[in-house]
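Ticket opened by: R.M.
Priority: normal
Category: complex prediction / small molecule

The reporter submitted a protein together with MF3 and asked that the result be attached to this ticket for the collaborator who will pick it up next week. Submitted input follows.
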Amino acid sequence: MITVKTAAEIEAMREPCAITRDVLDLLGRSLREGMTTAELDRIAFEFIKDCGAEPAFLSYCGYPASTCISLDDMVVHGIPNEKQIIRPGAIVSIDVGAVKNGFVGDAARSFYIGEIAPEKKKLIDVTRECFFKAIEDLSEGSPLGDIGYRVQKHAEENGFSVVREMVGHGVGRKMHEDPSVPNYGKRGTGIRLKAGMTLAIEPMINMGERYVKFLADGWGVATKDGKPSAHYENTVLITGEGTEILTL
Ligand code: MF3
Ligand code: CO
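Result attached by the on-call engineer:
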């Protein structure tokens, strides 16, 4: 069931979304060579708690951390780890969520430190651009399929590929609500968006082929060909005039 949020519910969602944005900004600023992904996860946990919120991912279906941190060929759902070190030139995709006022905010960014290969930098940039292309001209009445169409078009025009196995989603009182928001598809298809819908739009874009493999830890998703992947996500409110990005 797709939920349309009331004005009061939208107001309630602003705070967890702002905390999610702030924790990503903090993690981006905190990134240093040699630190572990587990250290980053602790920074996120403490910040979210200090905001009077709860980490949305911690204990979700048994997930053991507050963030997902996915390096290089990891697409999503990398579990932070004491042995995993941040190195210059790596793509560091961080996905995080916060719960407050009974609502969830969900967002992700791909970061890097130091010198990065130009093609990896381009992958990060194009993945972020895919998100902004997707919401360009989006508003009440737009077909849901336009989101995936635009993401796929921009990714493929740049020689990259779109992950199909994981998709964006409605977000609200629960992290995963209807509808599914694929990053591929046909223009003009799917349900019509309504003002008050809140969607997590999250392109996951690969440098090589689109295929992924699922890791033995039960969570991690990596590219099959071992080439890099990037992720960019925001919680987006559909309005009568357009969209409002709640996690930016
Ligand atoms: N943010 C992810 C998503 O968009 C969810 C992470 S899965 C978790 O679907 F289990 F780690 F929470
Ligand atoms: Co999400």
